[in-house]
Amino acid sequence: MGCSFAHSKAELRERPSLRATELCFRFAKGNCRKGQGCNFAHGHHELRSLAQLVPQKSMARSNKKEAAARASALACLDYPVDSATVQGMMALTDQLSQELTDQLSYLEMVEARFKLMEQMMPFLDAPPGLSPPTGSCGYLGYQSYHSEQTVAAEGEEQTPSFSSVSPVTAQGEPGEPVKIWL
């Protein structure tokens, strides 16, 4: 396999324009002020295909740190998982991330990222009047929070409280259900 870098000015290629290849988050929230000057698409009808922009070649094998960064895109989601499942997931992480890297082209990885971001948008906004605490949420850099509702003695629902969740957290004993934040 040859080197993917240019070795002379003759081998240099112009960078493709990525204009309108990703949905505008501000437009989706209803407050993009750039209008036609915005570099992002204002709806699916404006999205341009990346197929013509990015060469179709497999991504190079990555080290564990890069694989963990890609996998942590799901860090904002919390799952109730059995502790045996947690152990199995941790054992398979390296193998699965390598298989995904080997099977997906760069274009597929970029498109998957865009789709994930689009799907996560509804979950990134806190309920009106409530804001999540400062914290990190894996590779995407979003804040992470989860709701803990309690019921008062009279059966009335109390106001939800939000607590910060570290990017990698697992709680529980072997054989018991655990809550894991990847």
UniProtKB/TrEMBL annotation:
<feature type="domain" description="C3H1-type">
    <location>
        <begin position="18"/>
        <end position="45"/>
    </location>
</feature>
<feature type="zinc finger region" description="C3H1-type">
    <location>
        <begin position="18"/>
        <end position="45"/>
    </location>
</feature>
<keyword id="KW-0479">Metal-binding</keyword>
<dbReference type="InterPro" id="IPR036855">
    <property type="entry name" value="Znf_CCCH_sf"/>
</dbReference>
<keyword id="KW-0863">Zinc-finger</keyword>
<keyword id="KW-0862">Zinc</keyword>
<feature type="compositionally biased region" description="Polar residues">
    <location>
        <begin position="158"/>
        <end position="169"/>
    </location>
</feature>
<dbReference type="GO" id="GO:0008270">
    <property type="term" value="F:zinc ion binding"/>
</dbReference>
<feature type="region of interest" description="Disordered">
    <location>
        <begin position="150"/>
        <end position="182"/>
    </location>
</feature>
<protein>
    <submittedName>
        <fullName>C3H1-type domain-containing protein</fullName>
    </submittedName>
</protein>
<dbReference type="InterPro" id="IPR000571">
    <property type="entry name" value="Znf_CCCH"/>
</dbReference>
